Amino acid sequence: MCGIVGYIGTRDCVDMLVDSLARLEYRGYDSSGIAVAGPDGIQVRKAAGRLSNLRRKLADEDRPAGHAGIGHTRWATHGAPSDVNAHPQGTKDVMLVHNGIIENYREIEDFLTQKGYTFSSETDTERAACLIDWYYRSGKRDPQEALRGALGVIRGSYAFAVLFRDFPDRLYAVRCESPLVIGLGDGENFIGSDVTSFISYTKKYYLLEKDEIAEIRADGVYIRGMDGHLVEKKVQTADWDVSAAEKGGYPHFMLKEIHEQPEAVRAAISPRIRDGLPWLEGDGIDTDKLPKYRKLFFVACGTAMHAGLVAKYVIERTAGVEVTVDVASEFRYRDPLITKDDLFVAISQSGETADTLAALRLAKEKGADTVGIVNVVGSSIAREVDHVLYTYAGPEISVASTKAYMVQIAVVYLIAMELALKKGTISRSQCEAAVSHLQEMPDVISQVLEEKDTCSMIASRIMNAESLLYIGRGLDYALSMEGSLKLKEISYIHSESYAAGELKHGTISLVTEGMPVIAIATQKRIIEKTISNIKEVKARGAKVVLICAPEVEVGKDVADYVIHLPKTDDIFYPMAAAVPMQLIAYYCSALKGNDVDKPRNLAKSVTVE
Length: 609
Ligand code: M6R
Known about the structure:
CATH architecture of the largest domain: 4-Layer Sandwich
CATH class of the largest domain: Alpha Beta
Bound molecules: 5-amino-5-deoxy-1-O-phosphono-D-mannitol
Oligomer: single chain
Strand content: 15-25%
């Protein structure tokens, strides 16, 4: 939700800022802007719409010159996406870019109005910038003091990068809840919402914490606490390089990330398998405690929540432990009955999703132990859980999550097996067999990827539908929800996922001649029942796409298009079946000419409630 960047050094600041924004555009793309500190004060350029609009503006108008600047790519919260609401926002003395939401901006506005301020935008950010300006001008014109004063008043979530006109040799950065990192170069330094923004220049960075103020100069970074004392920070190093954040010959990041899944799964599971068994001790998990939990709560949003649904089916089936799955925005307001005897598991690619973070804090307040299945290293959720299981998928740039989902469920399987082994619901040899199946999954996924032409053909036949259904039972139902979300998100075709057995209780009335229905049938014990449900929709004119286990015999009375998956163990089929669903959604979107990686109205990381 919004990307912020900053650069200070000897290179062309405009180029550096725009280049960094291009890497963060997936975080929001309603508008963008930059501010550059130069001899004639702070120069601001901004434009509604995609970054290309800003690039055009910079080519058409005079280019700001300078070596220190800040930039922003926006996902609108307060005020429509427009030039005037684009960031940077501020005054002639203070300019800032912001990711987050200022909750008490009305109070701040009232206070500032009394002091004679007027506002040109509808943004909460402009109120925050003016508040810093007020502290600056009414104090000793000291940036640190002004920031401390304003932060004492501001409530909400924010990552700010700030420029002061009188100090063109430095940038300031602060954060609370929203992510912010400081890249450490040689004679140059960076600010970014995440490492992706500066990875082509440096892999070294600091993680900024709440109540720290960073002063960033070309030759050094000074981080102080609220009382002004210097804080010693550990230098972090990103363990991936720029190629991971580039398309590498694929037309879209989504397609690249779908193809990265075999490797991503290997990276997620290999460090967690020893002697053929799951090994979670390396992540600090007390595995002897695992079987003692009364209940497990998996809480997440969107695709990550769908990974939680897979966890429920797999853990309840293999380990016999009750699992509750919640959408984080519901969990936090439904008075959940979670106690100190429970384990709370947050799943999040970004590690910054506001609702998941709030749910985690609630679970901690209630005394539960907490674990995070998180992709982004050093993110807020990763830092606040008792133990984090990183998924090691590398950066996921496409807004539509694919490889992150795949590695989330890969890690879930390891938790399920460990728990089942410790509970005694499976034997050591059964556990070894399951682990070995999991280790085969990267190859299985690679084989399914070879079906991409079939998926493209199927997409071409369904892409003009107004609406379609995804159906399945059990684990297949959990997966169908993810298939449906993926399609809606990027192709803008309405779809719903339904438990196949539930159709006749209402939804089957929607089925008309030619309506596409994507059915999944992989689970031996219920395949026949699913096939009966498929025949019911087929008999009513549905155009059926069936994704199924290899042994399923499919006649013309069942499906129009069939994708047979390679053989695997029943519980692992979600990893195989997810692939054609991702590819069908991808091709529907690409064939429609949509912006696949940046679907309308969305952003990659949702840091607001
Ligand atoms: O970063 P997170 O995994 O916490 O994000 C959660 C959801 O916002 C995310 O999975 C979203 O649903 C995806 N864009 C779907 O593809």
